[in-house]
Amino acid sequence: MPSAVEAEARIRDSNTRFVHYTTAQFALEILKSKCIWMRNATCMNDYNEMRYGLHCLVEAFGTNAGHAFNAALDGCHHGLAKDLDSAFSNVAPALIEHTYLTCVSEHSDDEEAYGRLSMWQSYGSKTGAALVFNNGPFLRPTDALPIWVSPVSYVNAQGVKGIIQSIADRMIEKRELLSSIPRADFMDLAFRSLISAVVSCKHEGFREEKEWRIVHLPTIWPALNERLPLDQVSLNGVPQPIFKIPFTDYPEEGFHGVTIPELIDKIIVGPTQYPAAVKMAMAQVLGDAGVVKSLERIQCSDVTLRM
């Protein structure tokens, strides 16, 4: 996804932080347990998350752009398009049923005092909290965990068609270079690109969320249990599996800045009847996690919203 490269460069240049909007109850649990959950995509607010991306990709590949993409693949390595189609078709059902996500949003400086109104309305319940994260762990390349971070592209099938065509054009332009990559490695790159297209596409109506996704595909790239433990919980009466991302550094593998004192830049307490109590509870848990002057990291939103 070319837009992902552009988005990552923009985040680095501006040092934009990320934010996770949730209820105050779950924010407190994240801080106390020192981990964040990855939920099955079928249990998210938009339960058609992966179906939408897959639909857009399949429709785009039925156009001239898809034919150009396949021809460009075969121009680099003979028969690669057919092999890629077979490999991707085998995992397509798993993308719908076995994709696990943690969702964050870009956090701009002008949202520092009050957060984003639409996100409080969607995710804050009657008492919400926004965990503002430093961006380092999201942007550093690492193989410590079988997860990756991707910005969401708010496009329809026509938009995906344009993306596929632009990739095809670039492959033709760089054919000599790409042909020098071993076939198996090139196949893996193309395979990951199609998967990335599916998991990063979202309906244009959600554009204001400015979402980024932390993605795990356990049936394709399994995890070591101690690093990404699997658990089962019941949320709103719905039993479901989750994976947990512990706030644990693996500095020798490039995964660091994940402990609470380094990761949490600040907390915004959402519109609530109980701002003082929520702020004090959050500050105590931050202090227990090793944050010095924890009260200074907590801001109560001043947006006037009756929840």
Write a structural description.
It is a single chain. With 307 residues, this protein is α+β, with helices and mostly antiparallel strands. It has one domain (2-300). 44% of the residues lie in helices and 21% in strands. It is built from 12 helices and 12 strands. The protein has helices at residues 2-14, 24-33, 49-61, 64-76, 80-97, 117-123, 136-139, 157-173, 175-179, 183-200, 260-263, 275-288, and strands spanning 17-23, 35-40, 100-107, 128-133, 147-151, 153-154, 201-202, 211-216, 230-235, 238-246, 264-269, 298-300. Strands 1, 2, 3, 4, 5, 8, 9, 10, 11 and 12 form a 10-stranded mixed beta sheet that branches. α12 links the parallel β11 and β12. α3 (49-61) packs antiparallel against α5 (80-97), α3 crosses α10 and α5 runs parallel beside α10 (183-200).
